[in-house]
């Protein structure tokens, strides 16, 4: 099955038109940092799947069409802060 979230070169499809992984990662860091500053405005009374999806949408809505939605195929993204492990 073809992964609907990945470009041919392996970069995540994104709203920013970034095709190089390095450029997308920098843009994601910058945008996510700004979005995380006001995540406290979300109603976090109870941790639910809907809340997690809402937070994911809030952080990544400017970058990915699928922000806040469950993926139809698993993806793997190495994280620098987790010595190469994936979330």
Verbal overview:
The protein is an all-alpha fold and 87 residues long. Helix content is 32%, strand content 0%. It has two helices and no strands. It is globular and about 40 Å long. The mean pLDDT is 83.
- Helix content range: 25-40%
Order of helix and strand elements from N to C terminus: HH
Average of the residue pLDDT scores? 83
DSSP strand (E) fraction? Answer: under 5%
Short précis:
By secondary structure, the chain is mainly α. Helices cover 32% and strands 0% of the residues.
Key features of this structure:
87 residues, mainly alpha, 0% strand, globular
How are the SSEs ordered, and which strands pair?
Blueprint: H1 21-36, H2 49-60
